[in-house]
Structures are given as structure tokens and as C-alpha cells.
Amino acid sequence: MARYPFVVGLRTARPVERIEQWLLARCRGKWHVRLEEIASDLSHKYLIVSFERADDRVQFRQAFAKANAAAQTAAAQAVTDPAETAADKTAAA
After folding, report:
1. Is residue 31 in a domain?
2. How many whole angstroms separate alpha carbon 36 and alpha carbon 9?
3. What DSSP designation does 15 have?
4. pLDDT band at residue 88 using 50, 70 and 90 as cut-offs
């Protein structure tokens, strides 16, 4: 098992393959993904990603934080007041 000095732990619902594809496309150094834990309901997993290079870790953390912020914003917008949703549907009809 590879051991690299720059480590990030993350909880995600994304497929590991998608994260590995991102790493393959963007990292300049070597990296390793380890599945640490899976939720009993399979809704998410906890991964440990280690990097050979500090700049790859920084880039990964920034991209992951940005993606999570966008997902949280989208989720917050999807959870609207039911009365507003009903009014919007009535106005559209």
C-alpha cells in the first residue's frame, strides 16, 4: 500500500471511480484512495486520499469544497416552502 505524506479524509456519496477519474486527470504526482468506512444504509462512504505532492492535495481540497458548496446550495434551493411551490405551479399552469 502506498503511503504519501499529504492526506485528506472525506465523507462522500460520490462513486469512488468518479473521484479516481478526477485524480487521474488533474494530479501531477502519485496518489492513493483508501475506502475507510461505508454507511450501513450505503448512502455515503468515508475515504482517505493521500498525495505525494502538497499542491495536488490543495487542488483536491479546493475542488471538493467547491463541489460540496454547490451541492448544498442546490439542495437548499430544492427545499422550498410548499406554499411557494404550489403557487409557482398554479402560476405556470
Report:
1. yes
2. 9
3. -
4. low
**Within a domain: 1:** no
DSSP state of 28: S
Tens digit of each residue's pLDDT (9 = 90 or more) over 34-57:
999 999 999 999 999 999 999 999
Residue 14 lies inside a defined structural domain of this protein: yes
In a domain, 92, yes or no: no
Instruction: Give me the number of domains the chain comprises.
Output: 1
Burial 26-63 (b: 16+ CB within 10 A, else e): ebeeebebeeeeeeeeeeebebebbbbbeebbebbeee
Q: How far apart are CA 66 and CA 87, in angstroms?
A: 32
Q: Is residue 1 scored above 70 in pLDDT? A: no
Model pTM score: 0.74
Asked if residue 26 has pLDDT above 80, the reply is yes
* All cell numbers assigned to 55: 499542491
